[in-house]
Amino acid sequence: MRTTSGVRATARVHARRDGRGGTCLPVLDGEGPLAPRRTRGTGDEARVTLVGAMSGPLGGDRLTVETEVGEGARLRVGSAAATIALPGQTKEEARYDVRITVADDGELRWLPEQLISAGGSDLYVTTRADLAPGARLVLREEQVLGRAGEEPGRLTSRLTVRIGGGCVLDQELSCGPGAPGGWDGPAVLAGHRAVGQVVVVHPRYGERMPEARMLGEGAAVLPLAGPAVLVTALAPDALCLRRLLDEALAVLERD
Amino acid sequence: MSRAALLVLADGRFPAGGHAHSGGVEAAVRAGRVTAAADLAEFCRGRLHTTGLVSAALAAAAALGTDPVALDAAADARTPAPALRTAARRLGRQLMRAARATWPSPELDALARAFPKGAHQPVVLGLTARSAGLEPQDAAYCAAYESVGGPATAAVRLLGLDPFDATGVLARLAPELDRVADRAVEAAREVRDEGRLDALPAASAPLLELTAQAHAGWPVRLFAS
């Protein structure tokens, strides 16, 4: 529910092998603005779509999405629309925490729509994926700074990926008014209004890592120090960003 | 302990190989993003609050005595571009050679043995400060200053920028350097007190990562990174 200090809500999705060659969802709970719905999957992959039941996150909100994929289960999570961070009635920042765990031989494709940081909003997002050594993950994050022609709000986004307890990626991006200086300068974003990452984790990377490569000037495939790959991309807008990330993902899946 | 050791360590003439690296400014100059002192200031400011903060915290944590092998892994996780990990290790190895000759210590010897190809430079820097009897704050200042001093010096060579202007850029960043060093030390203390490496900042600069990877593939370049 929404109070003057904002909404606190948690959504939970648990995916398990159903014993018949598919994936079942023994837990699929939403609350407040977070409504996960089971949608039509393909093959042995279950599919969940996050439907926004209210606007937000607004200032002061604390939203959490917990996703757990069990051994051998396959899940794809998307969202029905972009998430828009908006200013709230309080001056407090909003928090959006995504917690992901994937067991051995489990697979999660986490492909939500963009996060848009609207003017005047203040959001701190954390995404943490804890993977077993044999887990597979494709995780996409896209941040769009401001709606069309609008100055962005304040957005800080931290992405952490652990495999077998060891941290292979820890990255935080801070932008918008009030962010540490230079965020829009020539070292950090240089006027780009859309920034995105795709993390791919696959046990096959334990044997052979893809090579680093540039995809034009705005995107790169970066093999990490552990068995995972990061695609990082910068673009003038959300559409160009998605194109870059899709292209990179296609390259990685061909490898 | 002698505070003067900080002057020796932070001196651009300390033979640690930093002059061969531009901190990303060579790629920014080529892309037309840095053409004058004002852009250089914004470049340095952005680098200071991202790479600079992370390096300063790693250095302060190493100076405080946190396990350098764990810190090296934390540095890897915060450096997704392989070109930048390679550069950081190369710089770490060069600094290690100079450090062991200048302030020999069993801790430096152990780190050199654990990473024959070099540990991440900020980790080596922190341990060097510790071997020189300096404080974590000194290590943080040293790392934070390096994060902007390198690009400023490189910009003078790349753009023919007036050295007075480049030095002016650095001088005007001083209050922000103070804040970054303070935050870095605070984070390093949190790591030690709570045993959580994720208390280390992870501030990232997407353009520095992207352009560093592209720069490593240039056939001809003036700087190694």
In short:
The complex is a heterodimer of chains A (255) and B (225). Chain A has one helix at residues 238-254, and strands at residues 2-3, 6-17, 23-29, 34-42, 45-52, 62-69, 74-79, 83-85, 94-102, 107-110, 115-117, 122-131, 136-145, 154-163, 166-175, 194-201, 213-215, 219-223, 228-235.
Strand content of chain A: over 45%
Domain count of chain A = 1
Give the helix tally of chain B.
11
Number of helices of chain A: 1
What share of residues of chain B is helical?
Answer: over 70%
CATH level-1 class of chain B: Mainly Alpha
Radius of gyration of chain A: 18 Å
Query: The biggest beta sheet of chain A, please?
Result: 11 strands, mixed
Characterization of the model:
The complex is a heterodimer of chains A (255) and B (225). With 255 residues, chain A is mainly β. Helix content of chain A is 7%, strand content 53%. In chain A, a hairpin with a 4-residue loop joins β18 (219-223) and β19. Chain B has one domain (29-214): Orthogonal Bundle (Urease accessory protein UreF), CATH 1.10.4190. Chain B is 70% helix and 0% strand. Chain B contains 11 helices and no strands. Chain B has helices at residues 4-10, 25-30, 37-64, 68-77, 82-102, 106-114, 121-131, 136-159, 163-172, 174-194, 206-216. At the A-B interface, β15, β18 and β19 of A face α3, α4, α5 and α11 of B.
Which SSEs are present, and which pair or pack?
The complex is a heterodimer of chains A (255) and B (225).
Chain A: E1 2-3, E2 6-17, E3 23-29, E4 34-42, E5 45-52, E6 62-69, E7 74-79, E8 83-85, E9 94-102, E10 107-110, E11 115-117, E12 122-131, E13 136-145, E14 154-163, E15 166-175, E16 194-201, E17 213-215, E18 219-223, E19 228-235, H1 238-254
Parallel strand pairs in A: 2-6, 5-7, 6-9, 7-10, 8-11, 9-12, 10-13, 11-13, 12-14
Antiparallel strand pairs in A: 1-2, 2-3, 4-5, 13-16, 14-15, 16-19, 17-18, 18-19
Chain B: H1 4-10, H2 25-30, H3 37-64, H4 68-77, H5 82-102, H6 106-114, H7 121-131, H8 136-159, H9 163-172, H10 174-194, H11 206-216
Helix pairs in contact in B: 3-4, 3-7, 3-8, 3-9, 3-10, 5-7, 7-8, 8-9, 8-10
